From TrEMBL:
Name of the protein this chain belongs to: DUF2384 domain-containing protein
Ranges for domain Antitoxin Xre-like helix-turn-helix: 24-77
MF-aspect GO terms: DNA binding
Native source species: Rhodanobacter lindaniclasticus
Positions of region (Disordered): 1-20, 47-66
Length: 134
């Protein structure tokens, strides 16, 4: 009986301390590809304290909280969707900065929407791109 309960229980995600370093490395690579300023990077990560941000950037490691990991997950999903939608990596990276006529963006860029500071806006942009992929 105990074995069946263990099999039926949901698997738990690895602890944040094992996810943190690869997530942060991925984030800083995409921040470079997207040519994000430091203030934009911090905002997308949920506005961590400057000292924490620079430590993460310098060490490419650390233990960001669940909110930060969720944000990075959405951002990496956005990056992946753009790479699928636009075969030219430069075009994929540039899309984020261009004004967008879709009602979701109201003539502003996706990056402007994402910089609102709300994790929900990252989710909405990712959902939009996933829908464009089909």
């Amino acid at each position: 009986m105990t074995a069946r309960l263990a099999e039926a229980s949901p698997r738990h995600a690895p602890p944040a301390d094992t996810l943190g370093p690869p997530a942060l490395r991925g984030f800083f690579r995409l921040a470079e590809a997207w040519q994000l300023r430091t203030a934009e990077q911090r905002r997308l990560l949920g506005d961590p304290p400057e000292s924490t941000f620079y430590k993460w950037k310098r060490e490419q490691g650390g233990s960001p909280g669940r909110d930060t990991l969720e944000r990075i997950s959405y951002l990496l999903g956005i990056w992946k969707s753009l790479q699928i939608l636009f075969p030219d990596p430069a075009q994929a990276d540039a899309w984020l900065h261009k004004p967008n006529a879709a009602s979701l963006f109201g003539g502003h860029s996706a990056l402007e929407r994402m910089l609102s500071g709300n994790v929900a806006d990252l989710y909405v942009v990712r959902q939009y791109l996933d829908a464009q992929r089909g």
